[in-house]
Amino acid sequence: LAGGDSPRHIVSISDASLAWWDELYSxxxxxxxxxxVFSGACRGKLMASLFFEPSTRTKFSFQTAMLRLGGGxxxxxxxNDISAAKGESLADTIRMTATYSDVIxxxxxxxxxxxxxxxxxxxPVINAGDGGHMHPTQTLSDLATxxxxxxxxxxxxxxxxxxxxxxxxxxxxxTALAMFPDIKFVLISPNELAMPDYMLKFMRAxxxxxxxxxxxxxxxxxxxxxxxxxxxxxxxxxxxxxSDAFMLNAAKLQSxxxxxxxxxxxxxxxxxxxxxDSDPRAKYFDQARFGMYIRMALLLKLTALGRSAPEAAxxxxxxxxxxxxxxxxxxxYLPPLKNADGSCAYCDTTKQLIIDS
Length: 357
Ligand code: NCD
What we know:
alpha/beta, 5-stranded parallel beta sheet, 10 helices, 15% strand, binds N-carbamoyl-L-aspartate
């Protein structure tokens, strides 16, 4: 969340402060308790919904959140329908959309695309998923689910299971949990879908404790929260799915704690057997509901910020990242932005950002 305590754009969860989260979550709880009080809170505001990559849950969640606040929604369903398909730059699509809207929600297959968009937007930009990189509002839903079901976040062991390489929800969740005390992780994945280096580096730099495990059965008894994910086959170039070692069913759950919280960002494919759905520990549908409420709180906060001049009105030479999925490989005018360690500030991979002379 760029901008510290009161972030203007929700690009990554990494700058979120606890104070900001506490405020957002407390607003979310007020909305859950008395939704009628907020039914006109965004009247006259418009949310632009730019989904350059398919989405059902996240898109519906944002749209219903805005409609329940009394605001309006416009956007496109299919990226082929818009001017980008005619060769328009992302910067121009965003400048144009910002003139019509009060907030932009955007999903892209390119890593760092929301960061890039935020540089050109007069209105707040929310990252609804950028390739295999980050998905900060899914994380807000995840945090709300943990907080609601356990009464707080902290002092827990979290198992992350499945595709930890391309699963952007996992990267955002780990980043966010760095703010909370005494969180341990068990990373449960096949070797070829292991947590990327830049995330392991992030965790080590913050002394976050993690174990690596090749079978969910071995990890289950120690977990307080189990975060299941599907294989992101669309990013792995149609790669393999997940084997039985990364699937959950009622029989395996017998060894788990009685107050385990089972989450999944959805859609599930076959990672969680339907025989788990009736178990009171299964929280993945509640998680989707909390997702709508926390997005209501977020839209309320961000649309109240109004307009301000975009950061990068004029580009000063382009840059290109070594990561083939990075937005800088497609939008060649983007200003060079590096993290302190020299890595690309758009996609955060440890790959270098090459500056065009
Ligand atoms: C996730 C996503 O889009 O990254 N889904 C979601 O936001 N509800 C997970 C996924 O697609 O597997």
